[in-house]
Specification:
globular, 334 residues, 4% helix, 1 helix
């Protein structure tokens, strides 16, 4: 599918309604909105060894792939490369978006690389509906989200997870590097992140997250590698290293409302003097904290390690059960 131009509105180059299908060894290159799948009942569409390259869209939806209604996507070894989207809509994504009302979307060994979203577009991957998502052995490389609109919402260079009632979602054995988020729009309801902005529950297991950038130097809004709007997050056997927070308003994990934060056998580290691992913005509604085997800050400095433990002590601290056989971190700091 080369340079398919469907015009404007909800049209896509590849449009399926109601039937299961398999797309294998295909390429969507330079399309104006590539693929759309909707179904009135739980139905799975499969993409294998498929590339979405240089696709774009400037209306609500996605540049590459969208699932709607009860449709479910299963993608294996797919490449989402340099998608672009810019529009004022909560479902706008440069690679994948879903407004589906059920099921679990699954991405296995997929790569999301150098995708770009701006204006009020939400991010590279947007989950807006009551469906969950699982990323297994995926890579997110050098994706960007630049929020320039004051409309209150979630914005992320990688994943914007918009529903508190959605099924739990997972990232396991995934690799993130060089993802960048910025905002020039003020507003405490603008949540900006380089990796995850969420209202729902997301768990990262055995993931490595390197060289993320959170730049809200032109705005006053909650921001961080993880920006949680009453959401819950688990970091298990993860490394989060060398984050650049380019403003005092951002942190590795920024939380509001009543989230649960579990950090188990994980490393959060940065050489920045002003680095903060945790930033609770709403002290009247403290989150539930569970911190186990956490190393924070550069090895030569204890400032951030002290900061995160101080923050944890100031919060309502409820421990999380952990098996005595829990493994040590599977990731190295090299």
């Amino acid at each position: 599918f080369l340079a398919c131009d469907t015009g404007v509105g909800s049209d896509y180059a590849f449009n399926i309604n109601g039937s299961s299908f398999v797309v294998e060894d295909c390429e969507f290159n330079g399309c104006w909105a590539a693929a759309y799948f909707t179904a009135p009942a739980a139905t799975t569409g499969v993409f294998v060894n498929t590339a979405f390259k240089n696709c774009a869209k400037d209306a609500w939806g996605t540049a590459a792939l969208k699932a709607d209604s009860m449709a479910v996507i299963a993608a294996t070894n797919c490449w989402f490369y340099r998608g672009w989207v810019s529009q004022e809509h909560q479902q706008a994504a440069s690679a994948f978006t879903t407004a589906a009302s059920g099921g679990l979307h699954q991405f296995y060994k997929c790569t999301f690389e150098e995708n770009y979203s701006t204006g009020h577009a939400r991010g590279t991957v947007v989950i807006q509906g009551s469906s969950g998502i699982c990323f297994d052995k995926c890579r997110f490389l050098r994706n960007r989200n630049e929020n320039t609109n004051s409309y209150a919402d979630l914005h992320s260079a990688c994943i914007a997870y918009g529903q508190s009632k959605s099924p739990d979602s997972f990232c396991r054995d995934c690799f993130f590097e060089g993802n960048y988020a910025s905002s020039t729009a003020n507003g405490t309801a603008n949540y900006v992140s380089s990796i995850l902005s969420a209202r729902g529950a997301v768990t990262f297991s055995n993931c490595t997250i390197l060289n993320s950038t959170n730049d809200i130097s032109g705005a006053d809004c909650p921001a961080g590698t993880f920006a949680l709007r009453g959401a819950s997050i688990g970091l298990v056997n993860c490394v989060v290293k060398d984050t650049a927070n380019l403003t005092a308003n951002s942190a590795e994990i920024t939380v509001t409302g009543t989230p649960s934060v579990g950090i188990i056998n994980s490393v959060l580290t940065s050489k920045e003097p002003s680095y903060r691992a945790l930033r609770p913005l709403d002290s009247t509604l403290p989150p539930t904290m569970a911190i186990r085997s956490l190393r924070s800050a550069d090895a030569s400095s204890t400032a951030s390690r002290s900061a995160v433990w101080t923050a944890a002590a100031a919060l309502s601290h409820t421990t999380m059960p952990m098996s005595s056989s829990s493994p040590s971190s599977a990731n190295a700091l090299s």
